[in-house]
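Slide 14.
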Amino acid sequence: MSDPVWIIGVGAGPGATEGLSPDLVERIRQADQLWGGARLLAPWEACPSRKVVIGSSIAEQATSLRERGDQKVVVLASGDPGFFGIESTVVRALGPHEVRIVPHVTSLQLAFARAGITWGDAILTSAHARPLSEVIGWARRAPKLGILTDPVHDPAAIARALLAAGIPDCRAIVAENLGMPEERMVETRLSSLTGQNFAPLNVVLLVQDPGWSPRPVLARRPDSAYAHRRGLITKADVRALSLVRLGIAETDQIWDVGAGSGALSIEMAELSWRGRVWAVEHDPENLDFIRANLDHFGTPNVTVVPGRAPGVLAELSSPDAVFIGGAGGEMPGILRTVVGVARPGCRIVINLVTIEHLTEAIACLHELGLEPELAQASLAHGQAIGDLTRLVPDNPVFIVSGTVTTDRSRAATTGVSGASAA
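Slide 15: predicted structure.
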């Protein structure tokens, strides 16, 4: 039986052996194969082992370890191999019983220590090959944030994205080349990072100022905050009612069909900050509004999908939630597509303003095997009239909702009868 592959977390540069027991140092020196990035292998150059530089095809390389035979293999990792590191790739390739893992201090732990900042209430995350919407989501929720960077998502790019998303201009620390002779700590403000360049090996720490508090979930945002064609926007209170019925989780994949101005797409994306929203819209003027609003609110996890549904829905990921704000006369086809590809438990919410379209939507949901729920939002808002206040009613909105079950396929493939409403 082959010896297990050891994944050992190490430091960088001259301090490579710091924190390692004598037994671990000896295991590294006696390895037949020593794997790692070029930077991590450099301090062990004198070892007689065969050096394997880990490149971009890491998954394929890890698979080759199945054929190691009686070779003793040690994989060097930076810091903790399980913290956005190589551990998961090797474990997937070999299975957990063929791997031994020894963590080291992560670069973010070391950066907090160098800065003299406690990190018990911090979130440690990564922008390396991951969507920036996750970093934005954590920045809205955590008083302290440690961020691993990469050449694309460097401190300047991260700062621009966070500021565009409305994150306060807080204390920011960039730690360069940690553990190496050229180590440097740069303390500044988030806004100052946008114009600075740093060494490729760096991490970012963000610390919110005293008095900061997380942004509330479902915080009301007025319609005037969004660029939109006058009157053609799902009103703020109706958006809130619809969002509650959608029951969005932070990792959900969501379709916004007939996205209009994109207001609901943005608010769904802020709730699904580790997921993605597809904003489907065919009107050129509305598409301009959507893009302007996305730029204004810094919502990178919204993808604009120009075109008409249901045709353009075919290329989208299976949804966990679907909002339909406009069907363009294609309600049966849209619902059939949704129910045919949705994940079990997918929530569907439809906003309608006419009785004819309401009747059609309910009939479609019934024929597809869903049990629709109906509510009517009849809202009025206070308006000054001299020294007094009167209530001005909005047009009523029907809110229809339903949940896709695991029995959806049979109903979806049989089709939906009835003609589309004009």
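Speaker note: Residues 284-297 form the longest helix (14 residues).
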